[in-house]
Amino acid sequence: MTARVFGAIDIGASGGRVMAGVVHRDATTLHTVHRFPNGALHRDGHLRWDLTALFAEVLTGLRALARGFPEVESVGIDTWAVDYGLLDSDGALLAEPVSYRDTRSDAAVPRVHERVSRDALYAVNGLQFLPFNTLYQLEAERESPLWDKAAHLVLIPDLLAYWLTGALATEATNASTTGLVDVRTGQWSTQLLDDLAIPPALLPPLEQPGTIRGRLLPAVLDQTGLSPRTVVTTVGSHDTASAVVGVPATSSRFAYVSSGTWSLVGLELDKPVLTAESQQANFTHEGGVDGRIRFLRNVGGLWLLQESLRDWAATGRPFTAADLLGEAEALPAGGPVVDVDDPTFIPPDDMPARISAAAVSAGLAPPSTPAQTVRCILDSLATAYARTVRQATTLAQQDADVIHIVGGGSQNALLGQLTADLSELPVTAGPVEATALGNVLVQARAVGAAPATLEQIRAGLARTQAVRRYRPS
């Protein structure tokens, strides 16, 4: 069997990469051809993404992909969720997208709930309450002078795909994070669109992962050198949807933690759990590939560590993560544990001070050194992971035999062992690039180059990907 090549554009809140995925029999190898930073910037009174610059980085990555892997057949795109750009009737971007970490939607939350109660929202969309969910951002957007000029609302990965192909659509797994999709039907909720006075024409039609979005525009071919035969294939464009495809599970009884800037912790289900208990526990139902449901909670993530390192560097203490993790591991157990889901941790800046303040507020001795702060972050994350897995299994009445940690957090040995100890479940950590693997394999499956079912895909990853295992001590 000849090896086949697929490109993955994988962009998170703190950085992105373009990768080549080489699929040969049941083994997939990834090759990074371009990496680039990402981060929201303060502009025009808001925290915005520089999507124009990100697209330029994507084109740079595709040029490198064409040089190194000219046989690439397809490209897939995944990014973070909930954020969007507004296009005018000519298809031009009206402004750089506002980041979910901007505070503009805070005041919009009560206005939304005046029209639709939280209970009524959950009964339709099944989403965890987060003040930055797209439907709250849209309520805030009404006060913007751009609202009356907007013809299309396009989620971030679909906007990048539009600039590559000229085709407008909304990938289904990412659409599920907007709060505007009916969790039972998987379609835009006409009821919610009507209740919230959102014009249906604003939303491009839904498209399932594995669908060919389109061929590359002539200008893109000129700038990248890719073959005119190269297509953009829709994948699980919410990065967590792709990451869950890339979980190397050998059983259906698994819990997962997609550990990156955020941590997404939960189970994969066939049907929603729309109970009062599920809503009270703030569990969400996000779309997965093949119509699966990702029953999970957004839990604080490595953002706390990333921001702490950035803050220390800005104040003349450029610590490396590796050094501080080593020091943190040597510290005794029993330090402070804070609530990583506290909304005060969402904005950037002054993270170590906010962590100390949270400890004091909880009646605990605050961390006094960088190593103690790092240990506090990891203890707190592991506590949240274990608690959330227990809640998920109880609410869904579905046991878990193992926790799979994928993404950046899978490289953190202390986090893996703490999670195993606190959950009293074995932990399998890795692959770190689960998102890119899931992205590539959905593309490959669409053209018959990968197994037909998620279970077969995951079994192949379990045989071929390097992982680390932790058992409760």
Please characterize this protein's 3D structure.
- The protein is an alpha/beta fold.
- The chain has two domains: 236 residues, 2-Layer Sandwich (Nucleotidyltransferase, domain 5); 182 residues, 2-Layer Sandwich (Nucleotidyltransferase, domain 5).
- It has 17 helices and 19 strands.
- The protein has a seven-stranded mixed β-sheet with strand order 15-16-14-13-17-18-19, with helices on both faces. Strands 3-2-1-6-12-11 form a six-stranded mixed β-sheet. A two-stranded antiparallel ribbon has the order 4-5.
- Helix 2 crosses helix 4, helix 12 packs across helix 14 and helix 14 crosses helix 15.
Any guess at the CATH architecture of the largest domain? 2-Layer Sandwich
Uncertain stretches of 5 or more adjacent residues: none
The value of Rg in angstroms is: 21 Å
Strand % is 15-25%
CATH topology type of the largest domain:
Nucleotidyltransferase, domain 5
Distance between the termini: 44 Å
Tally of structural domains: 2
CATH superfamily of the largest domain: ATPase, nucleotide binding domain
- Biggest sheet: strand arrangement: 15-16-14-13-17-18-19
CATH class of the largest domain: Alpha Beta
Helix content: 25-40%
What is the compact description of this entry?
The chain folds into two domains: 4-239, Nucleotidyltransferase, domain 5 (2-Layer Sandwich), CATH 3.30.420; 249-430, 2-Layer Sandwich (Nucleotidyltransferase, domain 5), CATH 3.30.420. The protein is 37% helix and 20% strand. The model has no long low-confidence stretch (mean pLDDT 96).
